[in-house]
Amino acid sequence: MDVAGAGSEPAALWISAKVADRKKCIRCWHRRPDVGVYPEHPEICGRCVSNLPDAPGEQRRYF
């Protein structure tokens, strides 16, 4: 679906939307390609698997 920007002047902004093709993680709600990859946690993404209580946690970098 494409929608032109509103206003009286010619539209310089277009918005395009499409249906997501990735599964949604039930824990963080992000749509990621690795949802379903981990057999022990088939409904969550790798980022959430790494943040479970028995896992080492997500590596974060601060600049």
Question: In words, what does this structure look like?
Answer:
The protein has 63 residues and is mostly loops. The chain has a domain at 20-58. 8% of the residues lie in helices and 10% in strands. The chain contains one helix and two strands; from the N terminus they run ββα. It has one helix spanning 46-50; strands at 2-4, 14-16. The protein has a two-stranded antiparallel sheet. The mean pLDDT is 84.
Structure keywords:
2 strands; 63 residues; 8% helix; little secondary structure; elongated
Q: Separation of termini?
A: 38 Å
- Tell me the strand percentage band: 5-15%
Specify Rg, calculated over alpha carbons: 19 Å
H/E order of the elements? EEH
Number of helices in the DSSP assignment: 1
Shape: elongated
Estimated helix fraction: under 10%
> Could you report the average pLDDT, rounded to the nearest whole number?
84
Quick gist of this model?
With 63 residues, this protein is low in regular secondary structure. The chain has 1 helix and 2 strands. The protein has a domain at 20-58.
